[in-house]
Amino acid sequence: MSRRRRIYEGKAKVLYEGPEPGLLVQYFKDDATAFNNEKKGVIDGKGVLNNRISEYLFTRLSEIGVPTHFIRRLNMREQLIREVEIIPVEVVVRNVAAGSISKRLDIPEGTNLPRSIVEYYFKNDELNDPMISEEHITAFGWANPSEIDDMLSISLRINDFLSGLFFGVGIRLIDFKLEYGRLWQEEEMRIVLADEISPDSCRLWDIESDKKLDKDRFRRYLGNIAEAYREVAQRLGIIQETNIEELSNTKADLTVRGKS
Ligand code: TMP
Known about the structure:
- 27% of the residues lie in helices and 32% in strands.
- By secondary structure, it is of the alpha+beta class.
- It binds thymidine-5'-phosphate.
């Protein structure tokens, strides 16, 4: 299908060579995995929805001054991004206990945390992304202290902003995962937000009902996964309301409400 050179293939995305050096094309697949590839599936329309949701969130974040790799969306499944050197550290920010913190520390899911908690994980599938501390990050040279400071402060700003943005559309931002990269421009190096922010990488609960609107629907066999992602996009005003029937064959044809 594509004659472009494939640079990298992850579980939910592919990176292709871009139109000029320093640029890449990020393609969003419908594939989903959980528990590090133990559970696999295809969620029709997920790639289209995540492309739109991530475009929307990265655009809003860059408007408040968060540096990102995002340039623009190219089509239903692809966006143009700046090539960065990915830092092999996943930054997780938590507001409410759920998932692994609930298990590890025996805190019931849905418990408000005393304050937002930031955790680091080593991005390494073979090792199943183990949790690490700043000590590991600096000792093994994955990032230096000033890069960690940047990642931490940007992540907390993103948390404040996104918590408010989602609250405004009746969604509680429980937790999310971020990735960062190094971007060189001339002699300068900056840390920029990379990868994606979507219901694949966040926990999003309806404020009223606690209904899960994220990848936990896939991880926990709750069903109606694409419907939930679509609801997030609709609430954010990215796509128009259409009837749910259409969703089952929503391969590509999502109605777009204006340009964002
Ligand atoms: P966790 O509770 O499983 O540690 O996940 C915390 C948040 O990070 C949750 O919103 C899902 C997201 N996440 C990813 O995006 N990728 C991953 O590989 C993992 C483990 C979590």
